[in-house]
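Exam revision sheet. Question 4 asks you to relate a sequence to its structure. Input first:
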Amino acid sequence: MKGLLLLIGSFLLMSCAALPAVLPSTDQNMMCPSPFPTGKTRFIHAIEARMAGETKAVMIGVTLAEPDLRTLSCAIVSPEGMALFEAAAGPSGLNVSRALPPFDEADFARNMMDDIELIFLKPSGVVSEKGFLPTGEAVCRWHKDQGGWIDVSGGRDGRVQVRRYLEGGSLKRSVALAGGAVSPYRTIELQALEMINYTLIMTLIESEAVKDEPQFRK
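Answer key, structure tokens:
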């Protein structure tokens, strides 16, 4: 009986969820907050995974973002240097080349690559609203082609928030980029709202622009 009541309560909370109001801007030329890389870039972060406020794992994450092609590749490495997970994703789909337990669980790869896309790639789809949140941050709202919404908001201190909502308005992911305008990916905090909530704290170790090697004709 208790479990049924919890299920009903969760359903009611989801059905009552609504997107935050966007107060329209009077500036027709308002620019959207955009911390996202504009060229091919490699990032290396120390990652701390937390549940219920406790650290559960510490890893190294390597991400290669190619915004022009909307492709991503990533690897998760143990502190000892063992590759635990490797995958790539783009318009052609998802390819997992390595996944050791527990990273081989169902839907892990898809959810992880979706999170990486949320962090490192400018939202796809159509900008539906521009303006300000009730708390004062400038915000642009995208409606995704496959459904759902993404808000990218920025405060005067240079911090940026990226939030992903389901089509009905339920918040699923919240990303805080606290590095400022010069280095927005210096500190990243991702909060995931699932059956079991978790938080990832990512601290930048190194980032570099990557140039494709020239192709020589034989």
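Marking note for examiners. The chain has one domain: 38-208.
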